[in-house]
Design goal:
Blueprint: H1 11-19, H2 43-58, H3 66-77, E1 101-103, E2 108-110, H4 112-120, E3 129-131, E4 151-153, E5 158-160, H5 162-167, E6 175-177, H6 178-235, H7 240-286, H8 291-306, H9 324-350, E7 353-354, E8 362-364, E9 367-369, E10 378-387, E11 390-397, E12 400-402
Antiparallel strand pairs: 1-2, 1-3, 4-5, 4-6, 7-10, 8-9, 10-11, 11-12
Length: 403
C-alpha cells in the first residue's frame, strides 16, 4: 500500500504502526498524513510482483532476486580474484543492468535509466542515494525495527532509527540527526588532531634532544678519556692497570647509556609513527563523505587513539667531565704524596740505627707479634711490608742484604 507521501508499506504493518500513534505520520519521512488514513494500491509494484511470480512459475530456476542477478553477472565477469562484485538493477525485468546507485528509502538498487526515472518524482528528491557497495545494507538499518538509521543518540554515541528514539531503547535520550552528530564529532576530531600534532611535535623535539644526548655521551667519553690519559701519564707505569680498568668501565657506561638512549629513541619513533598513522586515519575519517561509514569507523579510531601512550619521555644526558675542584685536590695530594715519599726516604735514612735485643717471642689474645731479635752486628733498615700474620723486615747482616 502507498501513503500520500509516496512511501510503500505492507497493509498490516502500516495499519498497526499508524493506529498506535496519536498523530498519523509516515514512519519513513515523518510526513503528516492528516486526520484520515488514505491507503492506495501501488499497482506498479503489484504488477512487478505478479510478473516475477509468473516468470518463476514457468521456469524452475532460482528466483529472480537481486542476489540471483548479482550471481549471474558475476559469472559473466569471471571469478578472477580481486574483481569488484557487480550489483544488478532490481527494476530491470528482462536483462538486469549494472546498478549505479542504491536508494536506502526505497530499498532498491538502480541502473542509470531507472535512477533517472526515480529522481523525476518530487517526493523522491529527499531520498538517500549511496554508491553501490558502499557498506552493507543491513549495517545501515536498525536490527530491532528494520528502519533506516537516520538519528544519532548522543548518550550512547550510536546511530539509531526513528522508532528507537520514539518508543525503543533510546526513548528519552538526547537524539539528534546524523548530520548534527557528524558536525559535532568533526569538532572533536579537530581537537584530537591538534593534540596529536602537539604530541608529535614534542616527540620530534625529544628525538632531537636524544640525538644531542647521544653526541654528548660520545663527547663525554672523549673528554674523560683524554683527561684520564693525562692523569695516567702523570703516574706512568704504577697506574697502568688502573688506567685500563677505568677506561673499560667508562666504555661500559657508554654502552649502557647508549643502549638506554637507543631504546628510548626506538620507543619514541614508534610513538611518532603511531601518531602519524592515527593522524592519517583521522584525516581520512574527517574527509569521509559517507556519514554512516564515518560513524562506523569513528569509535574504532578514537578508542585506539585513547588507548595510545604518546607521552614524550624527558630523557636528557648532561655533559660530563672530571671535577675541576677534585682534580686540583688530587694534584695537591699527588704532590704531597710524592713529597711524602721523599720524606719517607729521608726518615728511613734517619732511622737507620742499630737495635740490640735478646730474641723474644710472645703471644697475646690468640694473636702473636713477631719480633726479630738481632745481634749487635745487625742493622734494621726499615719494615718492607705485611702479609697475613707475618711481618717481613729488610736487614743488613755483615754488610749484605737478605730477606
Amino acid at each position: 500500500m502507498a501513503l500520500s507521501c509516496g512511501h510503500n508499506f505492507c497493509r498490516l504493518c502500516i495499519e498497526e504502526a499508524l493506529y498506535s500513534q496519536a498523530v498519523w505520520t509516515c514512519p519513513t519521512c515523518m510526513a503528516d498524513l492528516g486526520v484520515t488514513l488514505e491507503l492506495h494500491n501501488n499497482f506498479k509494484l503489484r504488477n512487478i510482483v505478479e510478473a516475477f511470480k509468473a516468470i518463476a512459475s514457468k521456469a524452475p530456476r532460482k528466483a529472480i532476486t537481486s542476489t540471483a542477478r548479482r550471481e549471474s553477472l558475476q559469472q559473466d565477469e569471471g571469478s578472477e580474484k580481486g574483481k569488484t562484485d557487480v550489483v544488478p538493477c532490481e527494476q530491470c525485468l528482462d536483462e538486469p543492468q549494472p546498478a549505479v546507485k542504491a536508494c536506502l528509502i526505497c530499498e532498491v538498487s538502480l541502473c542509470q535509466a531507472h535512477l533517472s526515472k526515480h529522481n523525476v518524482r518530487d517526493f523522491h528528491q529527499e531520498h538517500i542515494l549511496v554508491e553501490v557497495g558502499a557498506g552493507k545494507e543491513e549495517e545501515r538499518r536498525c536490527r530491532d525495527h528494520g528502519k533506516l538509521l537516520e538519528c544519532y543518540c548522543v548518550r550512547e554515541k550510536k546511530c539509531i532509527c526513528v522508532l528507537c528514539s520514539m518508543a525503543g531503547a533510546h526513548k528519552g535520550h538526547e537524539v539528534i540527526t546524523m548530520k548534527e552528530g557528524h558536525d559535532k564529532e568533526l569538532v572533536k576530531l579537530s581537537s584530537i588532531m591538534t593534540d596529536l600534532r602537539e604530541s608529535k611535535s614534542d616527540l620530534v623535539t625529544a628525538l632531537e634532544e636524544l640525538q644531542e644526548g647521544e653526541n654528548q655521551i660520545k663527547n663525554n667519553t672523549k673528554t674523560l678519556t683524554s683527561d684520564l690519559k693525562k692523569l695516567f701519564r702523570s703516574i706512568k707505569a704504577e697506574l697502568g692497570k688502573k688506567q685500563t680498568m677505568i677506561l673499560s668501565d667508562i666504555r661500559s657506561y657508554e654502552e649502557a647509556d647508549l643502549a638506554l638512549v637507543t631504546k628510548a629513541r626506538k620507543e619514541m619513533e614508534q610513538k611518532r609513527d603511531l601518531a602519524e598513522q592515527n593522524l592519517r586515519a583521522l584525516q581520512m575519517l574527517k574527509e569521509q563523505p559517507d556519514i554512516f561509514l564515518f560513524f562506523r569507523d569513528l569509535k574504532v579510531v578514537t578508542d585506539r587513539i585513547v588507548s595510545l601512550d604518546l607521552v614524550a619521555e624527558d630523557v636528557k644526558v648532561e655533559a660530563m667531565q672530571l671535577n675541576d675542584r677534585l682534580m686540583t685536590q688530587y694534584e695537591t695530594q699527588k704532590k704531597k704524596f710524592l713529597l711524602q715519599l721523599d720524606y719517607l726516604l729521608d726518615d728511613l735514612r734517619d732511622q737507620n740505627r742499630v737495635v740490640d735485643e735478646e730474641e723474644e717471642v710472645r703471644k697475646n689474645n690468640n694473636a702473636w707479634d713477631f719480633f726479630l731479635l738481632l745481634s749487635c752486628s745487625q742493622k734494621i733498615l726499615f719494615p718492607c711490608f705485611f702479609h697475613e700474620d707475618m711481618m717481613y723486615w729488610m736487614i743488613q747482616v755483615f754488610h749484605s742484604l737478605c730477606f
